[in-house]
Amino acid sequence: MTRLFDEYRLGDLTLDNRVVMAPMTRARCTDTVAGDLTAEYYRQRSTAGLIVTEGTPISPGGQGYAHVPGIWSTEQVNGWRGVTESVRREGGRIFVQLWHVGRLSHTSLQPEGRQPVSASSAPARDGMTFAFTEDGSVGFVPVSNPRPMSADEVESVTRDFVDGAANARNAGFDGVELHGANGYLFEQFLNPSTNTRGDRYGGSLVNRARFLLETVERVSDEIGVERVGIRLSPFSELFDMPAYPEAAETYLYLASELSRRGIAYVHLIDQLPGGRRILDEGFLRAFRNAYAGSIILAGGMTQDLADHLVGEELIDLAAFGQSFVANPDLVERLRNGWPLATPDRISLYGGGPEGYLDYPRYEASIAL
User: Fold this and answer.
1) pLDDT at position 368, please?
2) Of the listed 41, 42, 184, 356, which one is catalytic?
C-alpha cells in the first residue's frame, strides 16, 4: 500500500500528499526578478504536497547563475508574491530555497566584478557555472577563484539569510529551505578540504558547523522554527568537494543538532555518482535515529523507491526533480500509474516558455 498520497503534517502545515517538487534551477528570469513565466511554471505543478523553489540568492554576492530570481529587493519580493499567490489559488504549499553559492560563481555575476567568497581560497577545480561570457552572451563558463571570508563577512551573510527569510514571509511563502548542499557555501564550511580556517568557523567539526547552525537559529528566530527546513548532501563530491573520513560523523552531528533546534525538516539529496546510490538505508536509519523531525529525500527518486522508504519509515516525504520538469501533473501520473514524459535536456537552462511551460498534462497529451 502506498502512503505517498496521504495527507502529511509538516510543522504547522498540512500537505495534501507526500510528494515534493525538488528545487531546480531553470534560469528563466529577467533582471533577477521572478515574473509571469515563473508564476505559471509553479502554478502548473501546485498539486505537489510541497514545492521547494529553485535556489534563490539572498544577496548580489550570493549569485552563481545568470537569470535566476533573487530575494533581496522589494521588486524581487513583489515578483515572488505573484508566484506564491498563483500556487495558493490552486491550494498548493511552497517554500523558497535560500541560496548563497560561495565559490561557485563567476566575476561577471558579482558586484563590480569582484571575486566570489568562500570559507578559504581553495578553488573548485573544473567547476562550471551559467554566467556571462566575454562577448556578453550567456553560457557555461569556468568558475572564478574565490577569496576567504572574514569572520565579520560570515556574520554578514547570516544576516542576509535572515533578511531573505523575512522577505520570503512578506512574499507569501509558507517557509524557507536553507541550501546547505551541492558544494555551495554552507558545505564549503563543513568540508575540511575547503575550510582551512583557523578562527571560530574552522578546524574542529563543531567550528565548521557553526556558520550553518548559527544561521538556522537566526532564521528560525525571525520566521518561526516550524517554517524552516534545510537541504544537505552527505558524501557528495559534487563541484570538487573531496571525500573526508569524518563525513558520516559530520552529518550525524548535524542531524542531532538540527533535531535539538526543532526545525520543520531536513531535505537530503543523493547525488547518485556513477548511477549508484550513496545514501544507503543504513545511513538513512542512522540519520533517522539522530533527527526527530521530518525527512525528505531527493535524487533519482522513483515511485517504487519512495513507497519502500516511506513504508520503512526511513523518510517522510519523497522529492522528485526532473520528473516534475516534463510532468507538471506528476502527482496524478503517479497516482494513476500513467507513463512519465522525459524532459528535453537542451531547454533545461535559459530561454522562454519552450521546455518550461509547454509540457502537456497526460490527459491532454493523449487527446492530441
Assistant:
1) 55
2) 184
Is 356 among the catalytic positions?
no
pLDDT of residue 3: 96
User: Could you say which DSSP state residue 30 is in?
Assistant: B
Strands 138-142 and 294-298: unpaired
Q: Which three cell numbers stand for residue 302?
A: 522513483
Instruction: Please list, in sequence order, all residues whose beta carbon lies within 8 angstroms of the beta carbon of residue 343, skipping any fewer than 6 positions away.
Output: 322, 325, 326, 355, 359
State the residue for C-alpha cell 530561454: 351
Distance CA 65, CA 55 (A): 10
pLDDT for 133? 85
The count of residues in the chain is: 368
| pLDDT at position 149 | 98
Other beta carbons less than 10 A from residue 221's beta carbon: 12
Q: What is the pLDDT of residue 276?
A: 81
Tell me which residue has cell 509571469: 36
- C-alpha to C-alpha distances, 224 to 88, 102, 201, nearest whole angstrom: 20, 26, 25
Q: 241-259 burial, b if ≥16 CB within 10 A, otherwise e?
A: beeeeebeebbbbbbebbb
- Phi then psi for residue 311, to 5 deg, are -65, -35
Cβ neighbour number for residue 30 with a 10 Å cutoff: 11
How far is residue 80 from each of residues 34, 38, 59, 186, 293, measured CA to CA in Å? 6, 9, 15, 24, 28
Distances (CA, A) of 280 to 59, 195, 271, 287, 322: 35, 27, 12, 11, 21
Q: What are phi and psi of 141, to 5 degrees?
A: -135, 155
Residue type, 243: A
Sign of CA dihedral 163, 94, 265, 117: negative
**Nearby residues of 101 by Cβ (< 8 Å), 6 or more positions away:** 55, 57, 62, 63, 64, 65, 116, 129, 184, 185
295, 288 contact by CB (below 8 A)? yes
Can you list the residues of the chain whose pLDDT is less than 50?
none
| Antiparallel, parallel or unpaired: β 128-132 and 138-142 | antiparallel
* Of the candidates 27, 10, 3, 19, the residue with the CA atom closest to the CA atom of residue 51: 19
pLDDT digits 0-9 by tens, 90-101: 999 999 999 999
The SS3 assignment for 75 reads: helix
